[in-house]
Specification:
0% strand, mainly alpha, 50% helix
Length: 106
């Protein structure tokens, strides 16, 4: 498994950043919100480590995009075709909120 300085795992750092964004975080240093809740989120990388990882990823955009696309393909294969039975973007049997002109197909 790949590691960065201090033994932090890149996947865990990215997962922490995703949670941070979901909680309303707006910058990398907002990951400190998770650090304050160690009993919930476990160990969270330091701000400098997070910044180094993001900098490394930014230096290799094409490789990161390729890896994301490969992961997306694997997830879709595992989930199977038409898992939800609904077209993408439809929720609870109707159009997404704010798009009342569209009607549910069928």
């Amino acid at each position: 498994m790949a590691t960065v300085v201090g033994g932090a795992r890149p996947g865990k750092i990215m997962a922490d950043l995703a949670v941070c964004v979901a909680l309303g975080g707006r910058c990398l240093s907002d990951v400190a919100l998770l650090r304050c809740q160690g009993e919930v989120f476990g160990p969270v990388a330091s701000d400098p480590t997070v910044c180094r990882l993001v900098g490394t990823l930014a230096d290799h955009v094409e490789a990161v995009e390729a890896a994301v696309n490969r992961a997306r393909t694997v997830v879709r294969q595992r989930a199977g075709p038409g898992r939800s039975g609904r077209p993408h973007g439809w929720y609870l049997g109707g159009p997404p909120v704010g798009d009342r002109r569209r009607r549910h197909p069928g």
